[in-house]
From TrEMBL, chains A, B:
SUPFAM superfamilies, per database record: DmpA/ArgJ-like
Location relative to the cell: Cytoplasm
Keywords: Acyltransferase, Amino-acid biosynthesis, Arginine biosynthesis, Autocatalytic cleavage, Cytoplasm, Multifunctional enzyme, Transferase
Name assigned to this protein: Arginine biosynthesis bifunctional protein ArgJ
Residues reported in the UniProt entry to bind substrate: 157, 183, 194, 281, 404, 409
Catalytic activity: L-glutamate + acetyl-CoA = N-acetyl-L-glutamate + CoA + H(+); N(2)-acetyl-L-ornithine + L-glutamate = N-acetyl-L-glutamate + L-ornithine
Length: 409, 409
């Protein structure tokens, strides 16, 4: 946890309703030399279905490898999250620590091991100490239930604020609730900034369909944010549906309410993803990059991410400089179909360049005023087709260097 | 030009020999509000052959588009380089400025327009002023010949030192000379940090074969360096062979001396590429990343560039932190075949992690001492095959943010 709150943190946190079938507890495992809760135990009602999306890293943590396997059966009874130690790149000893957690938790709950989901985030290369995990689990099993904010704070590492979101949908005339907690100060970082997101709903959703909806929502949210283009060994998003709401089960988009649920899930994922960007390491500006007119939606997304990941674009925004030349550069380097002479670029709704040229009588004043703010919009029209995508990032500041050049020392 | 010399600048610049058939002149076109030479005119003897590699950007400058066409005929009589204005994203007016330069220079030399090569580097989006180009050309045509160092200084923009390299080869019993000048403070930046490199040799080399050799040399040098992963709209490397040396003509690798010439060209390109990294914006450490044991050489290069472009790796080195966890992360995100449990990572010749684990009794002291230096070696063995690649980069420091967040303001 950083002492300094991100300037982009929301002024107020939402009040999350209880989700029937979900109980959170926290405890101190002291995975690091600190005096804070760092172990989260979420108990889930029997019958909870689960779906997940996991890092594409070729060097994932044992937790990620385990979850990938466990997700295949689609049921969940518990989630355990360790903060302070990523347990990544720890070989057999890392997997043994996961196994210890599984056996203790399955014994406590009387459930199958593969109904327990485990994540760890923090320092890489140090096996998760089994003795601390064991003592922590004993404490957390006995702990009183806690609220969402405590759970959201306990999964934090370099985050500067706990991140929570909630929404609802009408399914079969019943209001179902969706709430999520997430941590991450970027997509980034094996050390402490892994993105871990957990979504809980009382709706009844068949696991395969939950996976389908989660994948679609992720493509437009978590996969459209970037802080520094780095990908953690441990990135994880899990969605749990407890089925405790009397609404009818959702098994496909043919079901009444499925579209509403999908829309709510997409909204929740977007809220959560934006919170991660708002806590991007060193961030001072929240940047939305909308690309239109590309050859395809995929092409638009690659162009948008090329802009969002460009250190030169990100430092220009930090410097409050409407440097559209750097945007041209980032479009050009994306390798996607683009024609310099059809390109249009705008900041804050003001078109700066069009048809390969700065606009006649370009007035920088309204653009400069927009750049002074903390919410920056960059619009790029490629002028070729109808492909579109929107991604979100933050600026690149001295704060990022401070945090990451001095992290271990 | 920056006031502050890069701490990685070479202590002494090499003395470049004259290359028969090459004459440099410089003048003040005053493309910016400055009092320095910013226009370079290199006259080349009749019969000079030329080859080039140009930016892959989909939004290239008119100069790049023009050079791509002109290179097809393979002969050159002149090179014109403008510093201070990139003339990129300037539409028809930008192309008209190039045309003006071509017509004035071809009239002066009495040669075909497509034997004249033109580059521009500097601010993007402002058409190169034709009146300044015309006055500058008139002055430069009348100027006295100058030395290599003056030419190397005149093509600079944000560079902190002029960059020159030289070597030689024996071809048919004759010593042929190869010299190069280059500018760039990164691969980077449409504004002022475009990489422009020019190679001159008195050897006689058929244009198609020169292109073949230049492409091979580029793959191992210019395409193996990165400062911030950004690609300029104007990146250009041109090689000119004047044929003024009595050595026999080189037309294929079957010719005596062709291998020696290729080796010399590769050496020259490597020297030049390293100079660019040494002037990387804000750089305080020169980093060599050697990847071995990958599935293929291409795979090794992609992994090496993933490490070299990772902001987290680059900030760790800036912080003198042997943070091998971030190297694991960067290997994992490259998307190339890798097996966490076979990975080995070393710094400065000391193996830190092996077989998916930190080495037993890891002694950080020699590694920490290596990280304090200004030349950092990172070695990664993937443990799968025999693919290998080496790339070079610099660290990511507050200096980079200073330069790029404040550039236009």
């Amino acid at each position: 946890m950083s002492d300094k709150l991100s300037p982009l943190a929301p002024a107020i946190s939402p009040a999350l309703p209880d989700i029937a079938g979900v109980t959170c507890r926290i405890a101190r495992a002291r995975y690091k030399d600190w005096d804070r809760c760092d172990l989260t135990f979420v108990k889930l009602a029997a019958g909870t279905s689960v779906a997940g999306v996991l890092t594409q890293s070729k060097c994932p943590s044992p937790e990620v490898e385990y979850c990938r396997e466990a997700l295949k059966q689609g049921k969940a009874r518990a989630l355990i999250v360790n903060a302070g130690n990523a347990n990544a790149f720890t070989g057999a000893r890392g997997m043994a620590a996961v196994q210890k957690i599984l056996s203790l938790t399955s014994a406590h709950l009387g459930c199958a091991e593969d109904e327990i989901f485990v994540s760890s985030t923090g320092v890489i290369g140090v096996p998760l100490p089994q003795d601390k995990a064991e003592a922590g689990l004993k404490a957390v099993f006995e702990a009183d239930p806690c609220g969402w904010e405590d759970a959201a704070a306990t999964i934090m590492t370099t985050d500067t604020f706990p991140k929570m979101a909630t929404t609802s949908a009408i399914v079969g005339g019943q209001t179902v609730h969706l709430s999520g907690i997430i941590k991450g100060s970027g997509m980034i970082a094996p050390d402490m900034a892994t993105m871990l997101g957990y979504i809980f709903t009382d709706a009844t959703v068949e696991a395969g369909f939950l996976r389908e909806m989660l994948s679609a929502a992720t493509a437009e949210s978590f996969n459209c944010i970037t802080v520094d283009s780095d990908t953690s060994t441990s990135d994880t998003v899990l969605a749990f549906a407890t089925g405790q709401n009397p609404s009818p089960a959702l098994t496909s988009f043919d079901d009444d309410g499925a579209d509403a649920f999908q829309a709510a899930l997409a909204d929740l994922c977007m809220q959560m993803a934006h919170l991660v960007v708002r806590d991007g390491e060193g961030a001072s500006k929240f940047i939305e990059i909308a690309v239109t007119g590309a050859d395809s939606d995929d092409s638009a997304k690659r162009i948008a991410l090329s802009i969002a990941n460009s250190p030169l674009v990100k430092t220009a925004i930090a410097g409050e400089d409407a440097n559209w030349g750097r945007v041209v550069m980032a479009v050009g380097k994306a390798g996607e179909p683009a024609d310099r002479d059809r390109l249009a670029i705008g900041f804050g709704g003001v078109t700066v360049a069009r048809d390969g040229l700065v606009v006649p009588d370009y007035d920088e004043a309204p653009v400069a005023a927009h750049l002074k703010g903390s919410e920056i919009d960059i619009a790029v029209d490629i002028g070729l087709g109808s492909g579109r995508a929107t991604v979100w990032t933050c600026d690149l500041t001295h704060g990022y260097i401070d945090i990451n050049a001095d992290y271990r020392s």
